[in-house]
Amino acid sequence: MALTEAVTASDTRSTTATDVDTTAADTTGAAAAAADKDAKTVYRPVPVWFFGFEGLMGAGYDVAKSYSGAWMFLAAALVVNIVLARTVLRGRLKMAKAMLKGKRTRKIALGLIALRMGVHMALGAVGVAATSGPAHLAFAVLMCGSTVALLAFDQRVMLRALNA
Questions:
Q1: What are the residue boundaries of the structural domains of the chain, listed by start?
Q2: pLDDT digit string (tens) for 46-99?
Q3: Residues 10, 13, 17, 20: what is their CA dihedral angle, to the nearest 10 degrees?
Q4: Cβ neighbours of residue 94 under 8 Å, at least 6 residues apart?
Q5: 30 within 8 A of 84, measured Cβ to Cβ
Q6: What predicted TM-score, i.e. pTM, was given to this entire model?
C-alpha cells in the first residue's frame, strides 16, 4: 500500500461486514448474487415536471420574442431550476448526469435545434414567417412540449438500460 492510500475505519468495517456476510452464506451463489444486486447503483427517475424547466429554456428564444419583458421570467425560471436541482432533486442528479452523457440525449438536443431552424426556414420560404407575438408563443409551446416529451422518453429508455 502506498503512502497516499490510507484505509479508514469505515472502509475496513464495510469490507469486513461484506466478507463475513458472503462467507457465512451457503455456497450456492444466491448470497453473492444478492450482494451484487445490493451493490449495484439504482437510478431514480427525475420527475417529468422538472423537464418543463428544460422545455422552457429550449423555448426561451420564442418566449422572449413574444414579449420583450419575458427575459426576466426566463431568468427567474432558471434560478428556480437550479435551486430545485440542488435541493429537492439532489439525489436524482446521478440520473441526470447519466442522461447527459448518453448519445441519445445529444441527438435529441441537436434534433430540436434542427427542428427549430427547419420550421422557421420552411415558414420563411412559404412567406408565413413567425413574426408576431402569438406565433412565437405558439412555437414556444410546440418546442416546450416536444422537449418534455422527448426527455421523458429518453429517461424511460435510460432507466431500462441502467437498472437492467
A1: 48-163
A2: 888 888 888 888 888 888 888 888 889 999 999 998 898 888 887 787 777 777
A3: 150
A4: 41, 43
A5: no
A6: 0.65
